[in-house]
Amino acid sequence: MNNCTERIYNGLVKENPTFVLMLGMCPTLAVTTSAVNGVGMGLSTTVVLVLSNMLISMLRKIIPDSVRMPAFIVVVASFVTIVQFLLQGFVPSLYDSLGLYIPLIVVNCIILGRAESYASKNPVLPSIFDGIGMGLGFTVGLAAIGMVRELIGTGAVFGQQILPLADAAAGKGGYVPVTIFILPPGAFLVLAFLVALQNKAKINAAKKGKKAVGSTGCQEGCASCGNSACGGKIFPTGNEK
Predict the structure, then answer these.
(1) What percentage of the chain reaches a pLDDT higher than 70?
(2) What does the domain layout of the chain look like in residue ranges?
(3) What sign results for the dihedral spanned by CA atoms 26, 47, 5, 144?
(4) Whether the Cβ atoms of residue 45 and residue 79 lie closer than 8 Å to each other
(5) I need a labelling partner for 28 at 20 to 30 A (CA). Which of 47, 57, 173, 211 fits?
(6) What is the spatial distance between Cα 42 and Cα 11, in angstroms, rounded to a whole number?
(7) What are the pLDDT digits (tens) for 184-206?
């Protein structure tokens, strides 16, 4: 796996900002009342993340350490302003839905965290792909939460009615929306459920991996294990069999 592909995989799965690192919880919980809002916020953050990573990486040898964080904030704020104007001009409905959370992208800890920990220490191309991976991971997380909340809370996904609603006046049966899921408490419930589901999948995968390693006769510790499934490496001990 080359470095660029690894950065995308890292952001989507290994260090997903929403479900693994638990970063950017303010917009995650606030704007995911619908899948459209989640995708819109995620893609807006992705654009800012990629552009800011690129520019900060290009300027990493020029920016003095003493003003590192203020310089990062100026770069991020510039791109956020551009994205905000573009949304206001071309997608006003999404702009109105996201509201204050668009300018708050400036202080999103995902963007500042990647600028500090990765873009300021690595070349331009890997930094761009790191921004793409983290941004897509954030988008997937917000979209997943928004889809679940919208489906349970309104019976629709991306504005399309999936579950026919009940009509008591007409005596028509159907789905009765659970409106708490489009309210703030619903965001916490859905986030907790999705994180628990992911952790369960990881635990099951780890158990299967251990069984697979055990079946190959890996009984003598990592020093004598060459099986990549458990991360072991072969170290010369002088008594290899």
Answers:
(1) 85
(2) 3-161, 184-230
(3) positive
(4) no
(5) 57
(6) 13
(7) 899 999 999 999 998 998 899 88
